[in-house]
Protein 1
Amino acid sequence: MSTTVLNFSTDINRARLTSLRRRLAAKPQAIADVAKAIGIHRGTMLRYFQHIRAEIHVTRWEKRRANIVAIYALGAGPDAPRPMSEARPVATTTARAKRAAPRPTRAPRTYCYRPQPARRDWSVAMIFGPAGATA
């Protein structure tokens, strides 16, 4: 995997940085939200965020689906601490409780097969006759 270095002195990149700063000044947003609004890949937007990291800070963390996402705002300041994930301890205790619980016993399965006459493949029946026929 090759990584390309962004040249932040080009016109398009300076325009994107300006747009990024304007959006973060107006409203704190996540990396994916800004990337979607500007119209570039969020991996590329992450590089823009890393470039201006001294100018931004994490205001809060939001849970989106299974991930905890940082919400950034323009301006220097202390980052909000990342909260601990609650999903893993809950899942672990639930799984342990499930394993420790006694399993209900099931009634034994009964199988009922009807005796059916043997059938031969049609090609074998053509040569040797139907099954059970005596020669």
Protein 2
Amino acid sequence: MASTRTVTLTLARAARLRQSAHPRSRFLSTSRTCRNAQIPDIGTPATQKKPIGAFRGGIVGFLGGFSLAASLAAYNLLDEYNLASAALQASVEELKLSTEKISAHVRRIEAVEKDLKALGDNTSSKDDLSRVRAEVKKIFDGLHVEFLDLRSHVWGIQQDVHSLSKKEATSVRI
């Protein structure tokens, strides 16, 4: 600490001497012995950094934060878009499969309707059935009447044969 004080005093004296009335006087630092003396290397003097002002620091901080937030938002938006796109693609594929199934069902229904129409043209209706039933009933009634007539005729012949068999002498010869 004493050495720094002496150096400071020497420098102060030298400055006073420069300001004195003898401008031609010689300084100790300009003598030959001082010029040739080796100065120990104590390093380069540290330069002071200029402090960043509050306004400039605020702008730099704002721009840095804004760009970081914007990049994160863009990344999240792109990720959400990819997820939504994948979900939409899956939905479209599922819709395509269900549409194909429905188309197959519609074709089967149309084939069944075509067969049903062909069967409907070949089958009879209730009116046709009731008309045929009435005709069969008339035929059956007619056959029944004829059967009864035939039966009564056979009964009459039986009676005649029976009466003839009781009488031995008849006028009708067979």
Protein 3
Amino acid sequence: MNLSSLLRVLVLGASCLVAQPATAVPITYRLSGVGSGHLGSQAFTDAAFVFTGVGDTDAIAPIGGGVWVNPLLSLQVRVSGHGAAQGAPRGRFLCQQDVWRPGLSG
């Protein structure tokens, strides 16, 4: 192998070792169940609900005690028989990893 070929191999090998930056992507969280409460001014009892939130994988961070949090970019709440409401992007998705317990906070 001549010097020129060796140099090409070294440059190619070194370029493979350079770390590429991670690219954040949207992530959708969906929590559902049956419950009672209020959607706006409308009360509901024992109704099926779905919370759908979108976050950014680059924003996921630990907050201690095995709990990770991701601020939501959008949040939609659907309650059976009562339609849907689009929430302000103030909510956060939480996950306690040791027991795999998800949740939302406002």
Protein 4
Amino acid sequence: MIGTSSTTTGTQHAVLWDREGAATDLGTVPSDTDSYGGFITDGGLMVGVSVLNGRRTAVLWR
């Protein structure tokens, strides 16, 4: 499952949860502050956005 979680610094990061419930922080594009997980394709690619001051960059995590 992919989604978003708050970090200890108060930002939001895209997160991938495995079947046991362990979370992996997917991070952001360098210099961005937040990221949001959107969906996982049938091929297992994770799609979302990385954000800085309202500017959004599409992200594809593998």
